[in-house]
Every structure is written in C-alpha cells, then in structure tokens.
Amino acid sequence: MSPAKPAMAMEATRETARGPMEEDAAGRPARNAEATTSGPEVRVSGVALRYETRNGPVQALADCSLAVSGGSFACLVGPSGCGKSTLLDIVAGLAPLQEGRIEIDRRPDGQPARLAVVFQKPALFPWKTVLGNVLFGLDAQGIPAAEARERARRFIALVGLGGLEKADPHELSGGMAQRVGIARALALEPDVLLMDEPFAAVDAQTRALLQEELRRITAHSGMTVLFVTHDVSEAVYLGDTVFVMSGRPGRILRTISPDAGQRDRSSGAFARLTSEIFDLLAHSAPANARPGARE
Ligand SMILES: Nc1ncnc2c1ncn2[C@@H]1O[C@H](COP(=O)(O)OP(=O)(O)OP(=O)(O)O)[C@@H](O)[C@H]1O
Ligand SMILES: [Mg+2]
Fold it and tell me: 227 - beta bridge partners?
C-alpha cells in the first residue's frame, strides 16, 4: 500500500493558505515560528461512519468534529476501539466519508495538499529492502534518483536504522519495521502527516529519541500533524492540541491546548493535566470496555 494517498479523494474547499503562525492560543511562540510556510489546516465536521459486519452494524464514529490549525501538531487520544484509526483513514481518503465533511487547505501554489500516513501496522512491501520501501513514494513523486536516495538514507538514519538499508522487512523487529514506516512518511516531506500510534512498538529509549526528532522536524518544516496515540503523556508532551475522544461511537469530548508548563514532563502541571485526561478517558469508555464487563 502506498504511504501517501492523492488528495483527490477529499474536498479541499479552502483555497487560501495562511502564513506562518507566530503565537499559539496560549500566547507562547508557535512551534513552527521558524518555518517559512505553514501547513494546511485540516477540518473534520460532523463525520460519522458505520461498519456493516456479520454481527450487525458497528457505529464507529458519530458527529465527530475537530480542526487542526495549519502547521500545528495535534494528538488524538481515546480508548481502544473508539474510532481513532477509522478517523485517520477517513482524513487520508482511505475510508469512505459516509457523513460529514473533510476539508484540507490547498498548498500556496493551489495544488491539493500532499498527505503521508504512518499506519498502526506498518504496511511494508515484503519484496523490497528497507531502502526500497522508503524510496518507493519518492520515486512515485518523480523525485530525481540521486536526490531520492540521499533523502531516503537521511531519514533511515534519522529513525536509527542506518546500516540496515539493504535489510528485508522480515529481518526487522516490529519496532524497526514501524520506524521504516515513519522514515517513509517523513521522507515524502508531506504537507499533512497522519500518524497512527507510530511509536507503540518501539522501546522506551528509542521512543523518546523519536519524539524529539519528530518535534524538531515538524516544527521546522511547518507541516500539519495529526498523531494518534494511546499514551496520554506522549499526547500532552507532543501536542499543541490534544483531542480527547469518547468511547465508541467516537466523537471529540474535549479539546485541550497544553501550555509550555503543562508540556514540561517534570512539572506538576504536566502530571495534573495527564491525570485529568485519564479521568476523562476512564469515564468515557463504553460500558463493555470497562474492566469486568462482559458482552
Ligand atoms: N473494517 C472493519 N469492519 C468492521 N468493524 C470495524 C472495522 N474496522 C474497525 N472496526 C470497528 O470499528 C471500531 C473502531 O475501530 P478503530 O480501529 O477505528 O478503533 P481505534 O480507536 O483505532 O482502536 P485502537 O486504539 O485499538 O487501535 C471498533 O469497534 C472496531 O471493531
Ligand atoms: Mg487504531
């Protein structure tokens, strides 16, 4: 499966791209203040999706709305099965839009925004090497071969897999394969990066390094990020905005914009905010997902 999906599948009704943000809602310097352009705004309005299964319909999302400002980093947290991956797939144009709207700003040149996706399960081509997997999307974009190879190698090294360019996917651990998926998406230098629990299979030390790198790269590039995670601490640390989802059918319960103090992992403010989000999640899980419940 290709990591990037043409933006044709979605409506891009906002024609005007905005300039770089200088301040965020909390008044702190925006993380992309150094970026030369700000990525597209992504808006999800009233989205609903129902799966038809042999056991009857499953309402995954209902009236789900959120807006990710151009160039910002948004995290989506919610209980397992609440529809996070479904929502990401809809934004990516990989799942049908049954109800509601997805709007993504166009690029400053009027072209549809370029999207890249890091899937929850890395979908690598088993017959291609690590390098071949990262190169695939770059070749598809028509990037000259020498530049594509340089870029692919740079991002492979950045996710800590330098020296494994010639390895086959079956030789990689789950966390390594996930990092190839991350390198593949980042190498595309997309306008919008959609990430579905990208660090779930990665060890704690590598995860901390990758979080730092991701923050640095996305702040510098001005790309817009929608990042799904189960990890509340990760969401508060990384997110300019944290969207807290309800249990299924998923919708946004709360939108939080942590300030600099709340994002400092050693602060009491960080501990208080994460515990507040845990409480929200605990009370929003569907009854059959709470400990001790049976269906
Ligand atoms: N292809 C499908 N067919 C039928 N039901 C599905 C399908 N994909 C997801 N679902 C159901 O829709 C709901 C939402 O699934 P989804 O994968 O979006 O949740 P999630 O929030 O990403 O969960 P997790 O945190 O465990 O990854 C779940 O109840 C799931 O069982
Ligand atoms: Mg999921």
Answer: 75, 195
- Alpha-carbon distance 113 to 218, whole Å? 16
Residues lining ligand 2 (ion), CB within 5 A? 85, 120
Choice between 77 and 286, residue whose per-residue pLDDT is larger: 77
Residues 6+ apart with CB under 8 A from 264: 270
- Per-residue pLDDT of 238-253, as tens digits, reads 999 999 999 999 999 9
Q: Does ligand 1 have an atom closer than 6 angstroms to the CB of 12?
A: no
Residue nearest to atom 26 of ligand 1 (CA): 80
Closest ligand 1 atom number to CA of residue 88: 18
pLDDT tens track for 126-157: 999 999 999 999 998 899 999 999 999 999 99
Going from N- to C-terminal start, the domains of the chain cover 7-114+192-289, 126-189
Does the predicted TM-score (pTM) go above 0.90? no
Q: How many Å from the N-terminal Cα to the C-terminal Cα in the chain?
A: 35
The CATH number of 7-114+192-289 is: 3.40.50.300
170, 126 in Cβ contact below 8 A?
A: yes
133 backbone φψ class: left, alpha, beta (φ>0; ψ -120 to 50): alpha
Contact between 95 and 88 under an 8 Å Cβ cutoff? The reply is: no
Q: How would you list the strands of the sheet with 56-68, edge to edge?
A: 56-68, 42-53, 99-104
What is the predicted pLDDT for the residue at 90? 96
CA-CA distance, 205 to 220, in Å (whole number)?
23
